[in-house]
Amino acid sequence: MDELKKIQSNFEEKFQNVKSKDDLQNIKTEFFGKNGQITLQFKTLGSLQPEKRKEFASNLNKIKGDLNDKIELKNSEIENIEINKKLKNENIDVTLPIRPYHQGKIHPVSQVIDEISSIFSEIGFSVAEGPDVESEYNNFTALNTPEDHPARDMHDTFYLEKNKKLLLRTHTSPVQIRSMINGKPPFKIIVPGRTYRCDSDQTHAPMFHQLEGLHIDKNITMGHLKGCLDYFIKEFFEVKNVKMRFRPSHFPFTEPSAEVDIGYKIENEKIIIGEGNKWLEILGCGMVHPNVLKNVKVDPRKYQGFAFGMGIDRLAMLKYGINDLRAFFETDYRWLNHFGFDPLDVPTNYRGLSK
Ligand code: PHE
Predict the structure, then answer these.
(1) Of 127, 133, 135, 197, whose CB has the highest number of CB atoms within 10 Å?
(2) Separation of alpha carbons 159 and 154, rounded Å
C-alpha cells in the first residue's frame, strides 16, 4: 500500500510540471510504459497471497484509473490551448482584396471552327484533319490538277524543296485524298485547317484557314449540295432566309464546278447577310471529278458526290464584324480581348434556329 502511495505522490509531483504533449507522453511512458511504475506493480500481483492480492489489485486498478483520467483531461486541456493559439495567430483577413485573375479568350477563328463543326455534325458530318506540309501529289496531282495549272506556280505556292515534292498545302482539299485513300465509301467529312499561299493584303494573309466538305455516296446530287449549303448558311448566320446563287466556275477536281455567292446589304454601316442586292462570294464547290475518285480507288460509276471549300477567316469576319484579316494573326492581346470569346460560350445557333 505504501508503495502505491509513493507512486501516486511521485506522479502528482511530476504531473504538476506538465506543459506540453511531449511532457504528457513522457509521464505516460514512465508510469504506464513497458517498465512503467504502475505496470511493474501489476507484475507483482502473481507473487502475493490470495487474500492480499484481491485488495491490492482493486487499489491498483483504482489508482490506474485515476491517473489515466488525469492524463486524458490534461491532454484535452493542452489541445484546447493549442487550438486557441492557432485561431489567434492564423486568422484570415477576409477584407483583403482578391488577387487579380486573368481569363484567356478564345480566338474568333477557333470559335468559328467550333460553331461550324457543331452545325455540320447535326447533319452527320464528322471532322477530319491533315498536315500543313503536304506532298505535291496530294495537293495537286491526285486532285486532277494538270502540270501547267497556274495554281502550281511558284508565285502562289510555298514549295519546301527545290524539286517541288513537298509544299505547304494551298487548300484543305488534299485531305479529301487522305480520307478516301484510307477508307471505304460512303464519306461524309468536314476538314477545318490552316492553308498557305503567297499573298498578303487587307483581305489576304499568307496563312489562312479553310473548311473543306466532302460527301460521297451512291446517289448524291447537286441538289444535296445546295440543300447542305443552304442549311449551313442559315444556321451559321442565324437567319431564316438566305439569298444564294451558284455561279458556274472551274476547279480541276470538280465537274461541274460552281462558286457560291450570298446576298447582303449594308444598313447603318452594318452588314446584313441573306437579303439585299449585293453579292458576296463565300465558297467554291462542285461534284467531285471522276478522275479524283479513280485516284483514290473509288469506282465513279458506283459512287459520286460533292465537295466544297470555304474561307473560315472570311466567315468569322462577316459574322463578327471584323474588317482587317491581318489582325487575326498579329496576336495583339488587346484585339483578342475585344474580339475573343469566353471559354464555354456555346454557339447561340447550336440547336437550329432556322427550324
Ligand atoms: N479547294 C478550292 C479552293 O481553294 C475550293 C474547293 C473545294 C472547290 C472543294 C471545289 C471543291 O479554292
Answers:
(1) 197
(2) 7
